[in-house]
Hints:
It holds the Pfam family DsrE. By secondary structure, this protein is of the alpha/beta class.
Amino acid sequence: MTTYSILITHPPSDVTQTIAAQQFSQQLCMQGHSLNNVFFYGEGIHHANALSRVPSDEHAVYQHWCEVQRTTNCELLVCITAAVKRGVVSAEEAEDNMYNLRPPFAQAGLGEFFSALHECQKVVQF
């Protein structure tokens, strides 16, 4: 059994990459591996925007990541610096109680992500 970490740097508009990352994440656990965390960095932080809405005939990126978290029990970590820079903020940074970073996504710094990598044998970037 291998422990994985996944790094997401592509925007959610790249649906092919998004679906591949989500399917890969779930397949790991179905094959007996474990997924420690998914770290969203750069343009990848937009996957964590709880206020994003898509038409019913399009891939619901946010909801699918929530499902990945439920089925794999992994952490969904969002780079705090990249997120705030791009307007994805938690309740702590929000003004007027308007925030779009909500559980199961959580803020993390790059240092926290690098520390978590010590618990993994493999990192896969999408």
